[in-house]
Amino acid sequence: MTVSSDLAAPQLASPELLRSVFRRHAAGVAVITAQGPHAGPVGFTATSLTSVAAEPPLVSFGVGTGSSSWPVLAEAEYVGIHILGEDQHELAATFARSGADRFAAPTSWHTGPQGVPVLDGVLAWLVGRVVARVPAGDHRIVLAEAVVGDPTGPGRPLLYHQGSFTALRD
């Protein structure tokens, strides 16, 4: 095997290397929500949503332990998982913005099954029962078993790539 002289030298692992590599990985955009016992609903934008198993139906997502949503998610029994549509850039940005009142207008939502905040107008949503929180560096990987949902929203998915929200191309 020969190595081309046009290739950049490999970089040692670092947080910036990981971020740079994953900017090149297109990911679906989801919003995770939960109901706090005292402070009301919380939520954040996630690109780490993964289908884990079909039987039982399990999903996972990562959440930073320094996130404003983490104290509620650390205790929540149920979470809402929302798949955003390509026209929901602003909703994704609102839930990604630190210090934003994420559930204020124009965000449209209602209290769904198990008391979980459910966002209106999304492509699909699930309510999941949290079954595990796995330590992973400065994050936790949350595993949730789907208990109810709706996959019937119209449209195409919102993607995150190269640091911005985008849509599928034909």
UniProtKB/TrEMBL annotation:
SUPFAM superfamilies: FMN-binding split barrel. The keyword tRNA processing does not apply. InterPro entries: Flavin_Rdtase-like_dom, NADH-dep_flavin_reductase, Split_barrel_FMN-bd. Residues 22-167 form the Flavin reductase like domain. Pfam families: Flavin_Reduct. It comes from the Bacteria. GO terms for molecular function: oxidoreductase activity. The keyword Oxidoreductase applies. Keywords: Oxidoreductase. This is Flavin reductase family protein.
